[in-house]
Design goal:
There is one protein chain. The chain has 238 residues and is an alpha/beta fold. The chain has one domain: Spore Coat Polysaccharide Biosynthesis Protein SpsA, Chain A. The longest helix has 13 residues. The structure holds cytidine-5'-monophosphate.
Length: 238
């Protein structure tokens, strides 16, 4: 009999948050009575299907060890890399040394996304658990999106307008079979392809990725004003 499929969460948290411009990296900023990263991880700790949560930390991280909710037997930490993809790769290397199997699922979730609903996590798992490849939480865009010309000078100009009927925002978690994500990341390293999410890496293998419609308020903290918005969203959904 094949082993039971297991589910692992990977939380890339090794970014140094250059865009937000705070001294403390954005994943450690306070949010209500917790921090961004603790809020981001909480659903994975609660979910009975998640066996372990692998958090990739910056080599000089000075914050993780001081958090209240990091001493949980599901949590394991690894050192992250120079890019998000390298941080995820390091977590995968860790999983390969645990008894993780090729067909197990990994769910990669940004440390900077504190507003994931438990019900969206549940929906993602439910919709994809029989899938050979995997997929992502995503949300249709409501704004009209412009592709800009290469920036020259201070003013951008429009290159073209996207058909918004066909454009979705990629959210996280992004859920793939361990073997698929491993192959995809190796492929990108080999061909020197830079990716900003796991789905893009898997797309480069020519595989079709499912989109599971999640709530658009599963925002990523990028600017300081996002924190106020995140606090309001958490009040509404909790
Ligand atoms: O910078 P961005 O918002 O795209 O980062 C998304 C996630 O990837 C964050 O949780 C960040 O901490 C993580 N990351 C990482 N290792 C890096 C860069 C980013 O784990 N070298």
């Amino acid at each position: 009999m094949p082993n039971k499929i297991r589910y692992w969460a990977i939380i890339p948290a090794a970014g140094s948050s250059e865009r937000i411009g705070t001294l403390v990296p954005k994943q450690y900023l306070p949010l209500d009575n917790t921090t961004v990263i603790e809020a981001a991880i909480s659903n994975f700790l609660q979910h009975p299907k998640i066996t372990g949560v692998i958090v990739a930390l910056h080599p000089d991280d000075q914050h993780w060890g001081h958090l209240a909710n990091t001493r949980n037997e599901k949590i394991h930490s690894v050192i992250g890399g120079e890019s998000r993809a390298e941080s995820v790769q390091n977590a995968i290397n860790y999983l390969e040394n645990t008894p993780a199997e090729d067909q197990d699922f990994v769910l990669v979730h940004d440390a900077a996304r504190p507003c994931l609903r438990y019900t969206d996590l549940e929906l993602l798992i439910q919709q994809l658990e029989q899938d050979d490849v995997g997929g992502i939480l995503a949300s249709p865009v409501s704004d009209t999106l412009k592709v800009v010309d290469n920036q020259n000078g201070s003013m951008n100009t429009v290159n073209k307008t996207l058909d918004r009927e066909n454009v979705w925002r990629a959210l996280t978690p992004q859920m793939f079979r361990l073997v698929t994500l491993k192959k995809a990341l190796m492929h990108c390293v080999k061909h020197n392809i830079k990716v900003t999410d796991e789905a893009s890496a898997v797309e480069h293998l020519g595989l079709k990725i499912k989109l599971v419609k999640g709530h658009g308020d599963n925002i990523k903290i990028t600017h300081t004003e996002d924190l106020e918005l995140a606090a309001a969203i958490l009040k509404k959904i909790n």
